Structure formats: structure tokens, C-alpha cells
Amino acid sequence: MTKKAFSRKEKLFMFGRRISRNRLRVKNRKLILSKGNDEHCPKCGCKSSERTGNMAEYPQHWEKFLCRRCEFMVAEIDNSPYISCWESPDDFGLTAKDIGLTKNEWDELSND
Ligand SMILES: [Zn+2]
């Protein structure tokens, strides 16, 4: 993957303003509890992602979707349907704290 350098102005245009950690957690919490599909990167709130393309050899299919801003893996295809980090947050290394959930809410979510 080639990395292009963008100016601050261009970044602002592409990604919008960076939101504060607390506001992001509130947003994450809302999204995951409502099971909405207005998905964003849980780490930075950015809505833009980049796919790596298939990184395995055919007929295998292994592909990652990385956040354009912080490169957090927001979704993956691993010989599977598209799985977003919102569907199984712990598999993507997210914690209750990242999502703004209490321990109980988090446990309930994983029991689904
Ligand atoms: Zn991000």
C-alpha cells in the first residue's frame, strides 16, 4: 500500500473534524446498542476506509478494510462474509472502554 501525504486542509475535507474521545465513545455506544449501520471507525470516528484487496491466494479470500485515518482494521473478510468490527468487537481487539460500554453491557453483547 502506498501512503500519500495530505495536507491538513485536505485531511479535514476528507475526514471531517476529529472528535473528542468522550464524544466518540458516546457515538460508539449509541451505534452498537442500536445495532445501526451508520458505521465509523471506533478509534477515531472516521468514516472512510480502504480495502487491501485479496491478500491470500485464490480460492482463499482474505481482505482487510483499514481506517484511512488511523489504520485501525474496521472490517475483514477471512474466507467469510464481510465482518465489521461492530459485529464482533472483541475479535478486532476492541474493549468495553473503547465502545463506551459498561462491563455488563459488554458481556450481554458477547452473549448474543
Ligand atoms: Zn480510525
Helix and strand layout, with pairings?
Elements: H1 8-15, H2 21-34, E1 49-51, E2 62-67, E3 73-78, E4 83-84, H3 96-99, H4 103-111
Residues 41, 43-44, 46, 67, 69-70, 72 line the site of zinc ion.
Task: Please write the string of helix (H) and strand (E) elements.
Answer: HHEEEEHH
Instruction: Give the low-confidence spans.
Output: none
Distance between the termini: 36 Å
Query: Bound small molecules, which ones?
Result: zinc ion
Large-scale geometry? flat
- How many alpha or pi helices? 4
Query: In which range does the helix fraction lie?
Result: 25-40%
Structurally, how many domains make up the residues? 1
Strand content: 15-25%
Q: Strands of the largest sheet, in order across it?
A: 1-2-3-4
Query: Could you give the count of β-strands?
Result: 4
Mean pLDDT: 90
Biggest sheet layout: 4 strands, antiparallel
Work out the radius of gyration.
15 Å
- Classify the secondary structure makeup into a structural class: alpha+beta
Structural write-up:
The chain is of the alpha+beta class and 112 residues long. It has one domain. Helix content is 31%, strand content 15%. The chain is built from 4 helices and 4 strands; from the N terminus they run ααββββαα. It has helices spanning 8-15, 21-34, 96-99, 103-111, and strands at 49-51, 62-67, 73-78, 83-84. A 4-stranded antiparallel sheet has the order 1-2-3-4, with no helix packed on it. A hairpin with a 4-residue loop joins strand 3 and strand 4. The longest helix has 14 residues, at 21-34.
